[in-house]
């Protein structure tokens, strides 16, 4: 029996690859990717067991990886430093000859057009692995002294800007950190340097591989008292984002991204600042492990995941898949 007329047939627009491309709303490109890179204060590149394909680079290796990214069309990287020595205050984070500061200078000298983002935090530099100085909590344990952390984070951001960072990205989840950093940058003559706020950052189980990579697993307690509760809901997410906007943030970020696509969409709808999705280490490791076990098609699944971030509202994606994804997109464009 024939269908009544008029009759809608959406499949008409999906019949060929060219027709699908003609009506596609979401587009991926290498320029939308931010590649996270680890740099350590030593010699040689080091394997990260839980993150296949990702390395801790020395300065020479870092430059080689930055060159690879640039040639694939990736124009932005974010740097995480692993210092040779750590202390209670994370003083290596703001050292003028710190590993990230040296890395920024070398990358900008060789690739001046590359956007270099400096992760602005203390956890990789403190001997206890927390994002600020610890003080007794009055209950026999320890807690981070929020207000004591702010000048240290501000000092770190200024040192990163002085080294040539194009963007500073505070990730400590300390109350008031964006305002303190913005004021310090402006006072030091870096009013042109944007702040990419880790505005909505959850206390997540998806960070495990990163903590191995950066050597930042807390030695006491955990970060649940300052990172966000996964069950906190939309009101908490919007409040955190709004506070960062009011303090002068230029970008907002949601971290992790894959398990928080709904939050990404809510933040996108509420604010008109550029929005970054951080596709974190655990999300990367899961797909890598499944692909290695033959459980899924890596290319297809990775690109589908990255499209999901864009569809949810992300303008840019911070992802360890960036090199592979850029390579796949280039190959597809050539075919």
TrEMBL record:
Protein name: Delta-aminolevulinic acid dehydratase
Alphabetized CDD domains for the sequence: ALAD_PBGS
Positions that bind Zn(2+): 121, 123, 131
Key words of the record: Heme biosynthesis, Lyase, Magnesium, Metal-binding, Porphyrin biosynthesis, Zinc
E.C. no: 4.2.1.24
Record gene name: hemB
Keyword Transferase attached: no
Catalytic residue list: 201 (schiff-base intermediate with substrate), 255 (schiff-base intermediate with substrate)
Family membership: Belongs to the ALAD family.
Source organism of the structure: Deinococcus psychrotolerans
Recorded catalytic activity of this chain's protein: 2 5-aminolevulinate = porphobilinogen + 2 H2O + H(+)
Chain sites annotated for binding Mg(2+): 240
Alphabetical GO biological process terms: protoporphyrinogen IX biosynthetic process
């Amino acid at each position: 029996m024939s269908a009544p007329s008029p009759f809608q047939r959406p499949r008409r627009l999906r019949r060929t690859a060219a027709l699908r491309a003609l009506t596609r709303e979401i587009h991926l490109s290498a320029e939308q990717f931010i590649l996270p890179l680890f740099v350590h204060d030593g010699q040689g590149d080091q394997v990260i067991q839980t993150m296949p394909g990702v390395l801790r680079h020395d300065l020479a290796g870092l430059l080689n990886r930055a060159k690879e990214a640039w040639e694939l069309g990736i124009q932005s990287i974010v740097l995480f430093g692993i210092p040779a020595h750590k202390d209670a205050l994370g003083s290596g984070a703001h050292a003028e000859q710190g590993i990230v500061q040296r890395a920024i200078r070398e990358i900008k000298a060789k690739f001046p057009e590359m956007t270099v983002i400096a992760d602005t935090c203390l956890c990789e530099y403190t001997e206890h692995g927390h994002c600020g100085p610890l003080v007794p909590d009055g209950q026999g344990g320890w807690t981070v002294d929020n207000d004591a952390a702010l000048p240290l984070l501000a000092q770190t951001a200024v040192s990163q800007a002085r080294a040539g960072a194009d963007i500073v990205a505070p990730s400590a989840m300390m109350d008031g950190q964006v305002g303190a950093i913005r004021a310090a940058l402006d006072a030091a003559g870096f009013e042109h340097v944007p702040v990419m706020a880790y505005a909505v950052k959850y206390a997540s189980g998806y960070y495990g591989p990163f903590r191995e990579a950066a050597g930042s697993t807390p030695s006491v307690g955990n970060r649940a008292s300052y990172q966000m509760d996964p069950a906190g809901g939309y009101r908490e997410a919007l409040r955190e984002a709004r506070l960062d906007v009011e303090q002068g943030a230029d970008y907002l970020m949601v971290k992790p991204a894959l398990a928080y696509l709904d939050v990404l969409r809510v933040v996108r709808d509420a604010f008109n600042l550029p929005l970054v999705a951080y596709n974190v280490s655990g999300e990367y490791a899961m797909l890598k492990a499944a692909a290695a076990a033959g459980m899924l098609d890596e290319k297809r699944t990775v690109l589908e995941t990255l499209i999901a971030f864009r569809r949810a509202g992300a303008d840019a994606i911070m992802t360890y898949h960036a090199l592979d994804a850029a390579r796949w997109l280039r190959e597809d464009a050539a075919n």
